[in-house]
Amino acid sequence: MAGIRLLDELRNFMENRVVLTGAELGVFELVHEYPGIDGTALAQRLSLDKRASLRLLDSLCAIGYMRKEKDGYFLTENGSYLTTSHPQSILPMVLHYCHLWKNWSNLTSTVKLGYNPERSSLLQDPSKLKAFIGAMHVMSKNLAYEIAKVYDMTNSKVILDVGAGPGTYTIAFLETYSHLSAIVFDLDEVIAISKQYIGEKGLIERVKFVAGDFYKDPLPKGADLAFLSAIIHQNSPEQNIRLYSSVFEALVPRGKILIRDHLMEPDRTSPKAGALFAINMLVSTDGGDTYTFEEIKEQLSEAGFKDVKLIRRGPKMDCLVEAQKP
Hints:
The model has no long low-confidence stretch (mean pLDDT 95).
């Protein structure tokens, strides 16, 4: 019986793929726009094969994302989360999962070779990059305000948000601490998205936007706190040391660096989320990984930082490590 149960669990990839394909093809959005639409009309509007579309729609009904009345299809509550109109939409992250699926499909080759021979990069496709940035915002906005309360920024004045993405953390920090200003640093194409999110919150006057690539360009100077959120896992140890050194040069004396990421136990088998995310980095980056506290401490120390502290430990990407520039 245990073997049967395991097979049932392993077969879950079929349900997941059905949902990802539905999101990728815009099926949920169309059914939301036209409740009760039949399969023929949906296939025509999305330029899909009719028979294949019907099988996809019926499968989505079977697993609870849609319901069928006669020949018409309607979204269930679960399905509604995969539309842009839902206030808690998870569609951006699901579209990012579609990208991850392709990289994860090469895991066997990656383990044999040590690298993914067919790795797909977000930067190669603007639509995938936009989905990823949107996914970051969806996943981080609640945690951002939590961290803003957990980590006391009363004595900070200027925060440098390195690789800020949509600016989710900058928004939370500025709304929590009215005396703060921020420098947002990211790629030029991402800065445009940051400005949109931060502008919608009415905070743009307190933010300086600087476009650049932290792998190549020096970081803007003048901040007393540098924040690296979900950055170090995409880097090799050598890349992190170079990034920490760049942060060190940018900070004012006695400035601090705050890192948010996964934090592995010494044996690297837990937490579970971090162990699996290490595989995600294996198939998606050149040298990315998840790190233990001692590994992060060693890298920070090599870059010149002192007084490395573990501020918060959690089961997911919610751990905080702090260090100070002398």
